[in-house]
Amino acid sequence: xxxxxxxxxxxxxxxxxxxxxxxxxxxxxxxxxxxxxxxxxxxxxxxxxxxxxxxxxxxxxxxxxxxxxxxxxxxxxxxxxxxxxxxxxxxxxxxxxxxxxxxxxxxxxxxxxxxxxxxxxxxxxxxxxxxxxxxxxxxxxxxxxxxxxxxxxxxxxxxxxxxxxxxxxxxxxxxxxxxxxxxxxxxxxxxxxxxxxxxxxxxxxxxxxxxxxxxxxxxxxxxxxxxxxxxxxxxxxxxxxxxxxxxxxxxxxxxxxxxxxxxxxxxxxxxxxxxxxxxxxxxxxxxxxxxxxxxxxxxxxxxxxxxxxxxxxxxxxxxxxx
Length: 322
Known about the structure:
Blueprint: H1 2-29, E1 38-45, E2 57-60, E3 63-74, E4 77-88, E5 97-104, E6 109-116, E7 134-137, H2 141-166, H3 169-191, H4 193-258, H5 264-304, H6 308-311
Parallel strand pairs: 1-7, 2-6, 5-7
Antiparallel strand pairs: 1-4, 2-3, 3-4, 5-6
């Protein structure tokens, strides 16, 4: 009789302990141990959710904020998968938040990543006719790669075909010939590098000389201008002297006419002076005026073409029949 009582106590103790363990496990897994509250959300994905399991994590910008609680085909739409999420209350799920399927490392384990959502966007609420708020789903990286890969392969195939059509045998021969010519040209330039350096040095010296001549050219033009001004003033003075001489001669001529009766012997000398000295003075004045005009033309030509000081005047054009 005593043995039966002991077995009953042991059995009762085992049952109570099992119930307590189950309750503790449920309490721990439900998140009540840390006093967290969760809100229910749903998202509908159009791609494969392979690798996503129940209790997979939900992350908001990389921070773990919840779990996946249900995965099933969307009622009435077999092209979509309904994923029910439990997200910590207070998580900023906005109307422009997007849920994407992400893969963790190389393990193939997937989780739901929430991204987007501006701080001034309104919080996501259940729309009329919806039991819980629905988060917009976005394509994952793998889905984008699967979509873009065929286009990329098509473009690469077209590029390869175009390259093959361009690099046909005639074009390859022409390319080889061009490369050989470039090699020959490079070798020739290398062999004549000393000559090229000397030519460049001579060009640099010539440019320096031209620069020095150009720097001195304004001073030379100023000297020509001063010389022309001096010659012009000399011509004016000579002209004035000639006019004064003519006045003096006219006065002397009147005096000689009045004294002709007494100075007949001197008349021949005065006539000789008037016939020889006056024409020479006029010729000197004319030559000075021509020289002044010539200097003006030289100065004008130098101002129009300073290079004439180095290169000289170009040869005159031949006339017809020359």
